[in-house]
Amino acid sequence: MASKRSPRRNVRTLSALSPKLDFEALVRSIIDLHESVRSQATKAVNVYLTFRNWLIGWHLREYEQNGKDRAAYGDRLFERLAERLQERGVPRADDRELRRYRRFYEEYPMIREALPPELAQKIAASSSRAIRESANPKFKLDGRTLVDRLSFTHFAELLQIDEPLKRAFYEVECVKGNWAVRELKRQIASLYYERAGLSRDKQKLSKLTQAKAQPQTAKDIVRDPYVFEFLGLKSKEVMGESDLEDALLDKLENFLLELGHGFCFEARQKRIVIGGQHCFIDLVFYHRILKCHVLIELKADDFKHEHLGQLNTYVSWYGKHEMSRGDSPPIGILLCTTKNHAMVEYALAGIDNRLFVSKYQLELPKKEEIQRFLEKQIGDTVKE
Fold it and tell me: Considering the chain, what percentage of its residues have pLDDT values greater than 90?
C-alpha cells in the first residue's frame, strides 16, 4: 500500500516546493523562454556561418596547394570560381569574399578545434597537409571561445588589421565586453589599441572603455548582413531602423507610385558595399521620364548634416556603379520626420545642367506635397 501512495506524496511534495504562478508570471516565463531560445538559435546560425566561411577558406587553400588543374585557372581562380558559385545561388561568394575566407582560414587556424565532429572528420579524411599553428599562439584566444563569442562580421573587421598583436588585443577586448560589431568598429576608429599603448594605467583605461561600450544583442546578430543572406532573408525583413520608419517607408513607397510622376520601384533596403562596408539605401526608384535613379533616405530624426553626407555618398556611388548608357545622374531625396519633419532636402549630387534641373523640378513631386504627406502619415502612425 505504501508503495502505491508514494508517487502521490511525491507529487504533493513537488507542488509544495514549486511557486504558485499568477497569470503575469506565466507571461513573463514564456517571454523569457522565447528570448532565451531565440538567442540560442541566432547564436547557432552565426556559429555555423563562421564554420562555413572558415571551411570555404580551407577548401580554397587546399585547392591552391594540391588541385590537379589549378594551373589552368592561375590568377583567375577566384574570379572564375565566384562566377560559378553565384550562378548556383551561393550567397556572399564574389571574389573579394572568397579571398577573405581564405585569409580567415589562414589567420584563425585554431577554429579547427571548435568544429563539430562531422566537419572535423571530413577535414581529417581529405586534408593532405596539416593545418599550421597560429603565428602567435600565446596571444590568441582558443577556437571555441572565438566562435562562441564573435560573429563572422566581427572576424571580417578584425581581418582588416594586419598586425597580429593589435588584432589579438581587439579580439580579447571584444570578447570581454561582448561588443557589437558597430562598437568594435568604433573602438578601432578611436585608436583604442594605440591609446592603450600610451596609457600609464591600462587597466583603468580598459574599465572606462568597457563601461561605455555597446554590448551585442540577439537583434544585432539577426541584422548581421552575413547572417540574413546566409538564411536567405530579404534586407527589408531585418534592416528597418524603427517601427516608425518601417511604417512610413511602406506608405511612402505606395505614395510615390500613386503620384504618377514616372516612379518605377526598384528596391527596398538596397544593399551596396563601399570599401568593404555594407550600406543600405531605404528606397530606390528609377524615374522613367528623367531617366535616372532616385534614392530616398528616411530619418526618424531631426535633420543633421551627416544625413545629407550619407545620402550624397550613396548618390555618388550609384552614379559611378549603376548608371547605364543614356541615364542621367542619380538624385537623392532626404526626408526627416521629427520636429523638423517639414524639412525636405534634395541632394543634386553635382548636377549643374540647367535643363535637367528644370525638368527635375517639374517632374518630381513638389516639396510641399511630400511635406503634407509625411506630416499626415506621422500623425496617423503615432496614433495607431
Answer: 20
Residue 163 sits in the same domain as residue 51: yes
Cα–Cα separations (whole angstroms), residue 135 to 55, 59, 173, 284, 365: 19, 21, 20, 46, 60
Range(s) of the domain holding residue 245: 237-383
- Counting Cβ atoms within 10 Å, is residue 287 exposed (0-12), middle (13-18) or buried (19+)? buried
- Mark which of 222, 250, 279 sits at the end of a domain: 222
In the chain, the number of structural domains is 2
pLDDT digits (tens, 9 = 90+) for 275-305: 777 788 988 888 888 888 988 888 776 777 7
Q: Report yes or no on 27 lying in a domain.
A: no
Task: Concatenate the DSSP letters of all residues of 204-269 into one string.
Answer: HHHHHHHHHPPBP-HHHHHT-HHHHHHTT--HHHH--S-HHHHHHHHHHHHHHHHHTSSEEEEEEE
How far the first Cα of the chain sits from its last, in Å, is 64
Q: What is the Cα–Cα distance from 211 to 238, expressed in whole angstroms? A: 28
